[in-house]
Specification:
The structure is a homodimer. Chain A is α+β, with helices and mostly antiparallel strands. The first copy, chain A, has helices at residues 18-30, 49-54, 74-82, 92-122, 133-149, 162-171, 185-198; strands at 9-13, 34-38, 62-64, 70-72.
């Protein structure tokens, strides 16, 4: 499952961002070589002229190859690295389902769970200072995941895929945003299962 | 560029939603047969028990095949239909760039431009009732697009792709959200070019 022709890139990322960990975990799992460069979002390092010249959207993660090609967007980098590997289902419909979960993650999950975690855990806002809709939307997202995972181990296809990597990034630290994963037992089991598959430490122990 | 094995599905969508038009335009362009079923989001038709049984996330568009398989998320349906066609670049890096624009569209473009259009044009809110950040974020998104399109006709690869279809859906009606596309001349030319390629009417004339 090697894809070494994609290797040798620089991955610009903020280590506290789940979005940035997605391509990092993917490259590590597939044995694709890269160089990690820390970029501190809160300090404004994605808004410098140098960084904006590489990514006009001013976002991390960003992958940059030695020939100057750049690729932003966590899920797009992950998909590029995963192409031809077991992390992207070979069946066309299972692959479409994996992509569907990636888009849902960025639209309906990250925008509630990651945003509330950032405000609560990093900006140290009190619950009353945080838009109450984020808690509702985040719990709705966890409910959708619980339903999907009831009776199945992985989000798409029959094995770990890019969908699980994308979704676990912020789900495993959802408690830092004030979400109680224990209310979603299938999600809790899947979090531990996915962390084990990725070889990353358990952010929470559920037993 | 036919992909008729994907055909024969039902596409549940709200005709005022650009997200729902994306897979519709894609299927039309590729000559893939489908049946369109109107779902009115504002009337709560995505929240009925019947609809939630098909898509627990309660979102349109949703594609459903006669064997019961369902696929939500506009960009995922579009990618599934486009597989093997010229709408998905065959070069791996150009394909990754197309995907990157799809994720950016859902995260940074739709959430500002489509949301402000919905509030202004459909909910008839006055400008003072609308979060001012939406105008700033929407114009930032248009600026990123202008930069990308300066010196190139299409977002990824050398021809119309899924990235253009996804991005044009709400860009062509951005004026309904209070955005002035004339301030972004490369974007304005690309909107007309993409509408022509899709065979859809010009939502605005720029000359």
């Amino acid at each position: 499952m090697s894809a070494s022709h994609y290797g040798g890139f620089t991955l610009y990322g903020d280590p506290v961002s789940g979005n940035c960990l997605k391509p990092r975990w993917t490259a590590d799992l597939l044995g694709i070589p890269y160089t990690w460069v820390d970029v501190d979002v809160v300090k404004g390092e994605t808004r410098t002229p140098q960084f904006l010249a590489m990514n006009p959207a001013g976002q991390v993660p960003l992958a940059r190859w030695p020939d100057g090609r750049t690729l932003p967007q966590s899920n797009a980098i992950m998909l590029y690295l995963a192409e031809g590997s077991s992390l992207l289902p070979s069946d066309a419909f299972a692959r479409a389902e994996a992509l569907s979960w990636l888009f849902w993650e960025q639209y309906s999950h990250e925008t509630a769970i990651a945003v509330r975690r950032f405000q609560k855990h990093y900006l140290k806002k009190s619950d009353t200072e945080i838009d109450p809709a984020l808690l509702v939307r985040g719990n709705n997202a966890l409910g959708v995941m619980e339903q999907r995972l009831t009776g199945r181990d992985w989000f798409a296809g029959g094995a770990l895929s890019v969908a699980d990597i994308a979704l676990v990034a912020y789900t495993r630290v959802a408690h830092e945003g004030g979400f109680d994963i224990r209310l979603y037992p299938a999600v809790a089991r899947w979090v531990s299962r996915t962390e084990d598959a990725l070889g990353v430490p358990h952010a929470q122990e559920f037993v």
